[in-house]
């Protein structure tokens, strides 16, 4: 496993030069866990690298349905069908308990993938898949996504507004899409682990970068000062109360 750094524009594709890997795993719509969207020119650079090296790119598009700011960018799969394996799930849009996702393979890999899947298990139960297919065909899924985007946007805006009122302008990554943001608090509030522990003492869910999957590699550049904040399951009122409670814990000023 070879980690590649990310910044506010996503995967630093210039770091791929000289890498002879055969597979790259990326989350370009909303990089996990830090949240930035992979810029168009970097998408192109990643695909050029894959073509030169005969590599495949796994595009995990786990929450691409929720984008709030800026233009939609084309999926890597749409830009290079023969080099990209596309993954997506309904766990973010409908619920994790549904346990239905899907993969789109290059045509020349489809049969091998189907064979491997058959060897791994006997497939999912059929009833949920049929119900989901009818929900999509009826237009209900599109209407549901439209409602959820509006609700999540309101919750995200409330979180950004309350953080600024209580703590001033904090560095934030990933707010343009998805259902969580990464936030860096000033050093005076302590490191990420201390901050998250103090928040949990008051039933506030903050998470370290390591808790979001950044624990596998030493020296993660965002590990020390950043925390992850989710907002999808909260009402705007809960967001406001939670940030106010956090400010009280940390002794921060700002509006009340």
UniProtKB/TrEMBL annotation:
InterPro entries: Aminotransferase_I/II_large, HTH_trans_reg/aminotransferase, PyrdxlP-dep_Trfase, PyrdxlP-dep_Trfase_major. Keywords: Aminotransferase, Transferase. The keyword Transferase applies. One of its GO terms (molecular function) is transaminase activity. Residues 33-187 form the Aminotransferase class I/classII large domain. The keyword Transferase applies. CDD domains: AAT_like. This is PLP-dependent aminotransferase family protein. It comes from Camelimonas abortus.
């Amino acid at each position: 496993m070879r980690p590649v750094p990310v910044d506010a524009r996503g995967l630093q594709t210039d770091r791929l030069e000289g890498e002879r890997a055969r597979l790259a795993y990326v989350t370009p719509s909303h990089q996990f866990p830090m949240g930035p969207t992979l810029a168009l020119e970097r998408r192109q650079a990643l695909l050029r690298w894959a073509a030169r090296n005969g590599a495949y790119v796994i595009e995990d598009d786990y929450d691409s349905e929720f984008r709030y700011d800026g233009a939609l960018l084309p999926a890597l799969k749409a830009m290079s069908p023969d080099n990209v394996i596309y993954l997506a799930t309904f766990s973010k849009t409908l619920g994790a308990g549904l346990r239905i996702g899907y993969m789109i393979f290059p045509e020349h890999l489809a049969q091998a993938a189907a064979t491997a899947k058959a060897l791994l298990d006997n497939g999912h139960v059929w009833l949920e898949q049929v119900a989901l297919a009818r929900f999509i065909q009826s237009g209900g899924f599109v209407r549901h996504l439209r409602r959820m985007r509006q609700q999540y946007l309101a919750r995200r805006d409330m979180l950004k507004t309350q953080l600024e009122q209580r703590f001033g302008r904090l560095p934030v990554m990933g707010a343009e899409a998805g259902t969580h943001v990464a936030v860096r608090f000033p050093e005076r509030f302590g490191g990420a682990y201390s901050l998250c522990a103090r928040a949990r003492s008051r039933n506030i869910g903050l998470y370290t970068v390591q808790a979001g999957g950044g624990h596998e590699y030493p020296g993660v550049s965002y590990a020390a000062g950043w925390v992850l904040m989710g907002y999808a399951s909260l009402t705007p009122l809960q967001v406001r109360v939670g940030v106010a409670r956090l400010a009280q814990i940390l002794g921060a000023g700002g509006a009340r």
